Amino acid sequence: MKKASVIAVCIILSTFLVLHISRISKNNQIGNIIGTKNESSSWPYEKMITYQKNNYVVTSEKITSTGHLLRQIEHFSNDERDSNSDNFSNFYSVGTKLYTIRNFNVKDAIAVEITKGIFMKARNIEQKNNGR
After folding, report:
1. Which residues partner with 66 through β-bridges?
2. In CA terms, which of 24, 32, 80, 112 is 20 to 30 Å from 5?
3. pLDDT interval class at 76 (50, 70, 90)
4. Contacts of 7 (CB under 8 A, 6+ apart)
Protein backbone atom coordinates (compact mmCIF):
# COMPACT_ATOMS: atom_id res chain seq x y z
CA MET A 1 0.00 0.00 0.00
CA LYS A 2 2.86 2.37 0.88
CA LYS A 3 4.57 1.70 -2.47
CA ALA A 4 1.36 2.58 -4.37
CA SER A 5 1.12 5.90 -2.48
CA VAL A 6 4.71 6.80 -3.37
CA ILE A 7 4.07 5.99 -7.04
CA ALA A 8 0.88 8.08 -7.04
CA VAL A 9 2.70 11.06 -5.51
CA CYS A 10 5.50 10.73 -8.09
CA ILE A 11 2.97 10.67 -10.94
CA ILE A 12 1.17 13.74 -9.59
CA LEU A 13 4.44 15.66 -9.12
CA SER A 14 5.68 14.66 -12.57
CA THR A 15 2.42 15.79 -14.17
CA PHE A 16 2.57 19.10 -12.31
CA LEU A 17 6.18 19.64 -13.38
CA VAL A 18 5.44 18.90 -17.05
CA LEU A 19 2.45 21.24 -17.07
CA HIS A 20 4.41 23.99 -15.34
CA ILE A 21 7.35 23.72 -17.76
CA SER A 22 4.94 23.71 -20.70
CA ARG A 23 3.29 26.90 -19.44
CA ILE A 24 6.65 28.62 -18.91
CA SER A 25 7.83 27.54 -22.34
CA LYS A 26 4.68 28.89 -23.99
CA ASN A 27 5.30 32.21 -22.29
CA ASN A 28 8.82 32.12 -23.77
CA GLN A 29 10.42 32.32 -20.33
CA ILE A 30 12.22 29.00 -19.91
CA GLY A 31 15.47 30.32 -21.37
CA ASN A 32 15.39 33.27 -19.00
CA ILE A 33 14.94 30.94 -16.01
CA ILE A 34 17.91 28.74 -16.92
CA GLY A 35 19.96 31.70 -18.14
CA THR A 36 20.37 30.73 -21.79
CA LYS A 37 17.70 32.71 -23.58
CA ASN A 38 18.64 35.95 -25.27
CA GLU A 39 15.84 38.48 -25.59
CA SER A 40 15.91 38.13 -29.38
CA SER A 41 16.54 34.38 -29.60
CA SER A 42 13.30 33.65 -31.45
CA TRP A 43 14.61 35.68 -34.40
CA PRO A 44 16.51 34.02 -37.24
CA TYR A 45 19.51 36.19 -36.28
CA GLU A 46 20.34 37.68 -32.89
CA LYS A 47 21.59 41.08 -34.09
CA MET A 48 19.36 42.18 -36.94
CA ILE A 49 18.91 45.62 -38.48
CA THR A 50 16.46 46.73 -41.14
CA TYR A 51 17.57 49.72 -43.22
CA GLN A 52 15.81 50.84 -46.43
CA LYS A 53 13.79 47.60 -46.50
CA ASN A 54 17.02 45.53 -46.47
CA ASN A 55 17.74 43.12 -43.60
CA TYR A 56 21.26 43.04 -42.21
CA VAL A 57 22.91 40.84 -39.61
CA VAL A 58 25.82 42.22 -37.59
CA THR A 59 29.01 40.19 -37.88
CA SER A 60 32.10 40.03 -35.65
CA GLU A 61 34.13 41.91 -38.28
CA LYS A 62 35.42 45.29 -37.07
CA ILE A 63 35.31 48.15 -39.55
CA THR A 64 38.14 50.71 -39.48
CA SER A 65 37.17 52.89 -42.42
CA THR A 66 33.58 54.13 -42.48
CA GLY A 67 31.98 56.53 -44.89
CA HIS A 68 29.13 58.89 -44.12
CA LEU A 69 26.32 58.59 -41.58
CA LEU A 70 23.26 56.91 -43.10
CA ARG A 71 20.68 56.99 -40.29
CA GLN A 72 20.10 56.01 -36.72
CA ILE A 73 18.04 53.12 -35.40
CA GLU A 74 14.57 54.56 -34.88
CA HIS A 75 12.66 51.46 -33.74
CA PHE A 76 13.64 48.69 -31.34
CA SER A 77 11.62 45.63 -30.35
CA ASN A 78 12.01 42.01 -29.30
CA ASP A 79 8.65 41.21 -30.87
CA GLU A 80 8.94 39.89 -34.43
CA ARG A 81 5.57 41.40 -35.29
CA ASP A 82 7.18 44.85 -34.96
CA SER A 83 9.93 44.14 -37.50
CA ASN A 84 8.13 45.78 -40.44
CA SER A 85 9.56 49.18 -39.48
CA ASP A 86 12.46 50.71 -41.35
CA ASN A 87 15.56 51.75 -39.36
CA PHE A 88 14.75 48.92 -36.98
CA SER A 89 16.75 46.55 -34.78
CA ASN A 90 15.95 43.61 -32.54
CA PHE A 91 19.23 44.15 -30.64
CA TYR A 92 20.56 47.71 -30.94
CA SER A 93 18.88 50.57 -29.11
CA VAL A 94 17.20 53.59 -30.65
CA GLY A 95 19.88 56.12 -31.60
CA THR A 96 22.50 53.57 -32.69
CA LYS A 97 24.22 55.05 -35.76
CA LEU A 98 24.52 53.32 -39.14
CA TYR A 99 27.27 54.28 -41.60
CA THR A 100 28.42 53.41 -45.09
CA ILE A 101 31.57 51.30 -45.41
CA ARG A 102 34.22 52.52 -47.83
CA ASN A 103 34.41 50.36 -50.97
CA PHE A 104 31.13 48.54 -50.14
CA ASN A 105 27.72 49.04 -51.67
CA VAL A 106 25.10 49.88 -49.02
CA LYS A 107 22.96 47.04 -50.38
CA ASP A 108 25.76 44.61 -49.44
CA ALA A 109 26.93 45.89 -46.06
CA ILE A 110 26.77 48.79 -43.60
CA ALA A 111 28.69 49.71 -40.44
CA VAL A 112 27.06 49.86 -37.00
CA GLU A 113 28.62 52.06 -34.32
CA ILE A 114 28.34 49.75 -31.31
CA THR A 115 30.14 52.18 -28.99
CA LYS A 116 31.76 55.56 -29.61
CA GLY A 117 34.27 55.04 -32.44
CA ILE A 118 33.85 51.22 -32.61
CA PHE A 119 32.17 49.93 -35.77
CA MET A 120 31.06 46.44 -36.75
CA LYS A 121 30.08 45.18 -40.19
CA ALA A 122 26.45 44.29 -40.84
CA ARG A 123 25.92 42.25 -44.00
CA ASN A 124 22.74 42.09 -46.04
CA ILE A 125 21.33 38.63 -45.38
CA GLU A 126 19.56 38.54 -48.73
CA GLN A 127 22.63 39.22 -50.87
CA LYS A 128 24.36 36.04 -52.01
CA ASN A 129 27.88 37.42 -52.42
CA ASN A 130 28.04 40.38 -50.04
CA GLY A 131 30.91 41.45 -52.24
CA ARG A 132 32.56 44.81 -52.66
Report:
1. 101
2. 24
3. confident
4. none
